[in-house]
Amino acid sequence: MKTDTPGDKNSQTIHRRLPPLSALRCFEAAARLESFTRAGEALHLTHGAISRAVRALEDDLGTRLFERRSHRVFLTDAGRELLHSVANAFDLIDAAARKLRAPAQRAPWVLSCEPTLLMRWLIPRIPAFFAAHPDIPLQLVAGGGPFDFGQGIDLAIRRNDFPWQRGTQAQWLFDEAIGPVCRPEQAARWTRDDSASVQLADRAPRLHSATRPQAWDRWSDLKGQQQAPGSEQVFEHFYFSLQAAVAGLGLAIAPWQLARDDLESGLLVAPCGFIADGSAYYLLSPEAIEPDSPVACLLDWLREQAA
């Protein structure tokens, strides 16, 4: 086993007796340019400094490296052998230095997120993440339901309402909670307040999302409220049903995270509150998340935003 302990029989300090690096630099430049003068110009040294460095190297090695003829120098056989080794060594050092000075940028982490959650919750908050972590490249893409990590997706945010790919690692983000929302001035019209709780008024117009068609029924079962049939409209995504609620078209059944910004701004109110529906959202990855990794940092930030 190699050691760096002076006196040890395996010490590299005993077995590795290298010529001075400065002398090798002068030798390599002179050999490459076939001139001590031009080597001096390249290294910003005098002709005499190059000559002395080469002579010291020849004395150290015990052999001539150059033949001097007029104003030019030519390598001896020993010089050509040394140049080959020195050039290879310098190339290795140069490659390692370039790699360390300008490390390759990792391709962005591709994060797939359900479209309405992406639009109404993640995108409004993500600038703060980029500002706090400019060294973590992240690309957001919209996607819902099943997916394949082998198709260019590194991470995904999904609700646990479908089977996940085998081996998927799931990290909890937040529990789902749903409830009706509407414009503030319409809350009194479409709800009634009895002795126990706020109830939906008979025939209050309901707005549905086609991506979760049973959401109203699920909420009614959880709340124990049965509403007389009224007018209904179905929209392709929660985003559209929430915009319809903002426009005053009716009561939209909405997850709290999707409506929270409109609730905080006063555009919408939730007259009956929200209730957990038993599902939750998770950050999914193909492998376990290493502590202190960029993905672990993203996970912590997502949980903070969901609180």
Principal-axis shape: rod-shaped
Return the average pLDDT rounded to an integer. 88
* Strand arrangement, major sheet: 4-3-5-12-6-11-9-10
How would you classify the helix and strand content by structural class? alpha/beta
> What's the story with the biggest beta sheet?
8 strands, mixed
First-residue to last-residue Cα separation: 54 Å
Give the helix level as a range of percent: 40-55%
Over the alpha carbons, how many angstroms does the gyration radius reach?
Answer: 36 Å
| The number of domains | 3
**CATH fold title of the largest domain:** D-Maltodextrin-Binding Protein, domain 2
- The percent range for strand residues is 15-25%
Spell out the helices and strands N to C.
HHHHEEHEHEEEHEEEHEHEHEH
| CATH class assignment of the largest domain | Alpha Beta
CATH architecture of the largest domain: 3-Layer(aba) Sandwich
Please report the number of helical segments.
Answer: 11
Strand elements, count: 12
CATH H-tier superfamily of the largest domain = Periplasmic binding protein-like II
Low-confidence runs (pLDDT<50, min 5 residues)? none
Domain HTH lysR-type: 19-76
Pfam families: HTH_1 (PF00126), LysR_substrate (PF03466)
InterPro entries: LysR-type_TF_proteobact-type, LysR_HTH_N, LysR_subst-bd, WH-like_DNA-bd_sf, WH_DNA-bd_sf
Protein name: LysR family transcriptional regulator
